[in-house]
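Same chain as my last thread, 126 residues:
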Amino acid sequence: MARYTTVDEFLAGMTVPEQRAKVEGLIDWVASTWPELELAVKWNQPMFLHHGTYIIGFSVFAKNIAIGPEPELMDRMRADIEAAGYTTTQRLFRIGWSDPIDYDLLTRIIETQIAEKADTTGLWRS
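reply #2:
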């Protein structure tokens, strides 16, 4: 498996053009909607940070994009995420390649993370 240090490398490693376009569009949407967030690659996946604390990350798999807020927020928003048609695990939810992206749901997740982690000094909730 390739090791990525930049988002451009991550995207270039995606071999299906439609999937790459979907992930790139999602990353661009987050970056333009919240320009105060820092886009980084950690653990070989693109993620957004705010003052050094984790907000949301994206992984790609053969069948889906995995979206990872923190587990605490997943627990609280699981019903909304599943109501949007996405499958969940303890730490993430999956958007199938042919599924639409629920931007309203993502907005609520990201806004909640930013607000709740305003005073967080580490990468994760303590």
